[in-house]
Amino acid sequence: MANQELSKVLEDIGIYLEMQGVQFKPRAYEKVGEIIGSLDRDVKDIYKEGGLKALEDIPGVGISIAEKIEEFMKTGRVKYHDQLKKQMPVNLDELRQIEGLGPKTIKTLYQKLKIRTLADLERATKAGKIRELEGFGEKSEENILKGIEFLKKSGGRFVLGFVMPEIRKIEERLKKLPQVQKINVAGSVRRRKETIGDADILIISDNPKPVMDFFVNMPEVARIFAHGETKSAIKLKNGLDVDLRVLPKESYGAALNYFTGSKDHNVALRRLAIEKGWKLSEYGLFQSEKGRGKREKFIAGRTEEELYKKLGMDYIEPELREMRGEIEASRADKLPKLIGYDGLKGDLQVQTDWTDGANSIEEMVEAAIKAGLEYIVITDHTKRLTITNGLDEKRIQKQWAEIDRINKGFGVKGIGFRVLKGTECDILKDGTMDLPDDILSKCDVVGASVHSLFNLSRKDQTERIKRAMSNPHVDIVFHPTGRILNKRAAYEVDVEELIKYAKKTGTVLEINAFPDRADLKDEYVKKCVDAGVKMSIDSDSHSINHFQHLQYGISQARRGWAEKKDIINAWPAEKMLKMLK
DNA sequence: GCCGTTTTCGGCCCGACTGTTTTCAGTCG
After folding, report:
1. Total count of domains within chain A
2. Global pTM value
3. Is pLDDT above 50 for A293?
């Protein structure tokens, strides 16, 4: 799908235009880039079927952008984009990752200091060049440096949910090859870590050469590092490294286990094997025979299940293999029965075009039904978040009438789906809510969110959120720590104190499934599980395609040892509602 | 550059915060 590439070109045009101080056009390009980026259908297909006219039917696309899309389809580039880029030859991808660096700043830095790349920026910062610029000072320089440091720490890692579609696509393609008998994606992808460094694909094949040839010649390959019979390694255009390995049938389980990790988990398994007088490697579990020249006796390794069983353990799900007590739990028959990937019945955070969502309530409902859900809560933003056109007292009541109308329609048609009334209500500076209690009391589900003042002291931020939790109508704290992976650290807040207070007030904490939020993170999920604090897994959908993100929230819950009993939207609507304040 | 229950031109939703200034530009959500 060329949508992603096209979407980036259009968004880049918007940024370049913004640098030039052009009015309104930037937003038009930015918006259309967003829309195309989250489109269901391949733009290529739309163009093939209906030409320019069909392109213009895409929301946000007029004649001018339609022509640019056409040009992109025909030539793979957009001249207008090339021209703009020539005028301002900076590495936007790199520089824009720094929090606080917008188009205008990037422009100034280029014009005054010839900064094009992250490396240029770091050099200038360390040489104290930034603070000398007009309009900049020591603080600006310090903030940029902090941004660079943060970026380095997250160091080239990819957000799982953002690269997963591409990995799955490659997996599906390889799976279809007649020479491939079995295939698995191993490594941190299989453990479902929130970010991954690379992807390891394992296969069984009697005739691997054609598979390898196919693999290194895929259209999204940018570089080939290795191209052999048992191992090939490539870099994709999006920067992700992918390895493909061919494994022998009899040791596939052992190899899958080895390549899935985590490293520490593997070490623990090997130690267990040694205790029993055996030896574990990626080739299998062996009886280590004394004496030279004797062949080691193969004990297990065809499947992972067999391997764990021989070691006297229950099978351990990949998401648990992080050395957080899973070895002991497995031996004691005390592993959790993790919530399943089909385990959700509802979604408690959904935005619509009443605020900053892309689709109507009805469209979101239709998509939710398709995603297999039984209910959703409409939780549009509230008035403080003005840019989203947040709902005030009047508009939210209007929305309720619309929801009633939709639910009534389901009643008539005999559809069991339920739309619930909710809000993603801003928590104000002092911990009070952006909507009055009499409105909140009439919502089915009240979510509370921090969207401002990320830099309060740890104490003030914690008190602020605790005050919101003490509101008798606040059911859930949405994305409790506010982090954005690869972009922004969590605000200073005492999460353990929030967990304690959640228990005391009966407040639910959210696992936000949006890929770069994944908030709460796994270790806090486990603390909630241990403390008996209930959680919800919500997509935070802003368009009909975002329900697919729920799986990443489920991953996060599983990595935190959560079972069905811990996740309130794994329950039927009635039971879920009864649990709330 | 897009859009239209303001319909083919004239709008395009804003407010808080920061760091720099001494009245404001840039960024964020």
Report:
1. 4
2. 0.81
3. no
